[in-house]
Write a structure and sequence with these properties.
Layout (H helix, E strand, L loop, with lengths): L1 E6 L7 H13 L3 E5 H7 L9 E4 L12 E5 L1 H11 L6 E5 L9 E2 L3 H9 L3 E15 L2 E3 L5 E2 L2 E5 L7 E7 L2 E8 L1 E5 L7 H4 L11 E7 L9 E4 L4 E6 L4 E6 L2 E6 L3 E16 L4 H8 L10
Parallel strand pairs: 1-2, 1-4, 2-3, 4-5, 5-6
Antiparallel strand pairs: 7-8, 7-9, 7-19, 10-13, 10-17, 11-12, 11-16, 13-14, 14-15, 16-19, 17-18
């Protein structure tokens, strides 16, 4: 069996858990492909790596790779998705971070989780992504990364003034938001930045996108849920000559005259979920729903 591993630099306290992971995979004679930057970071920190190879892109991986493991928090998981791109490789995460909506496997459960994963005892959830391109002077250009699993966000670049975000849905004006920015989230991303800005929780597979303003000046403006077949167009007015555009964990500066187009991507991410996991159990546990002595 062959699996891929993605990770980013971590604190020394995490090393025993990573060592346990590699030890189990070595015992099972699993052929391990480690992302090249992470492989360099592990040098001298992790022993028993005789069955490992390095890769820089999913194109370097063998065609029979079983799945990818992300080692870290949700941010690391999003970065892993950017590496997988449209390859269709299933992915799951072991949570070395804090909340862990995406990287849902607890680091204390590595042995049991790996047993289930290596036996194929899991389900695959198809998660939709957002796709984007920029239009500048009538010319279409792609940002450095043109898709996102969680959300895409336009934000003001400094702390001096709000921006005005003109949002169009299927070429019809939705609203001109006076705000610090605007979030366009998938159901997967509904429990991320959008949630912290007052957006609703949307169940994966609902066929929706969420548009959530960031600190709107018009207090009667609220988040809205749209069908994911909608085509979005974003135009920004600002006193600055540029604004920030983020897609998952990536951010870049964009000229104010640019137009941002956003729609559902043509491919989905294959997210691995263990049998005992579910969306509802995850939000109950992570968001502490029902944490009241009267419920027990």
């Amino acid at each position: 069996m062959k699996i891929a591993i993605y990770g980013r630099p971590f604190q020394p306290a995490v090393i025993p858990y990573v060592q346990e992971l590699f030890d189990i995979l070595e015992q099972q004679e699993v052929e391990i492909w480690v992302y090249h930057h992470f492989s360099e970071f592990l040098e001298g920190k992790i022993a028993s790596r005789q069955h490992t190879h390095a890769f820089a892109s999913y194109k370097d991986l063998p065609s029979d790779i079983r799945f990818m493991l992300s080692l870290g928090g949700d941010g690391t998981m999003l970065a892993a998705v950017s590496i997988i791109a449209d390859s269709g490789i299933p992915v799951t995460g072991i949570n070395f971070g804090r909340l862990g909506f995406l990287a849902s496997i607890n680091k204390d459960k590595i042995k049991d989780a790996l047993a289930a994963l290596l036996e194929g005892n899991y389900d695959i959830e198809k998660r939709v992504l957002l796709a984007t391109y920029k239009e500048i002077g009538g010319q279409r250009t792609l940002p450095s990364l043109s898709f996102a699993l969680n959300d895409m966000t336009v934000m003001k670049k400094d702390s001096s003034a709000m921006i005005t975000v003109h949002a169009y849905v299927n070429d019809e004006l939705l609203n001109a938001y006076w705000a610090d920015g605007l979030i366009i989230a998938t159901p997967t991303g509904s429990t991320a930045y959008s949630l912290s800005c007052g957006g609703p929780i949307v169940m994966p597979g609902s066929g929706n996108f969420i548009i959530t303003p960031i600190s709107p000046h018009n207090l009667n403006v609220r988040p809205i849920v749209l069908g994911d077949s909608s085509l979005l167009r974003i135009e920004v007015e600002s006193r600055s000559d540029s604004f920030l555009f983020s897609y998952d964990s990536h951010t870049e500066s964009v000229d104010t005259g640019a137009i941002i187009h956003i729609r559902r991507a043509d491919f989905a991410v294959n997210l691995i979920r263990l049998k005992q996991e579910s969306f509802f159990s995850t939000i109950r546990h992570k968001l502490l729903w029902g944490l009241d002595t009267r419920n027990y």
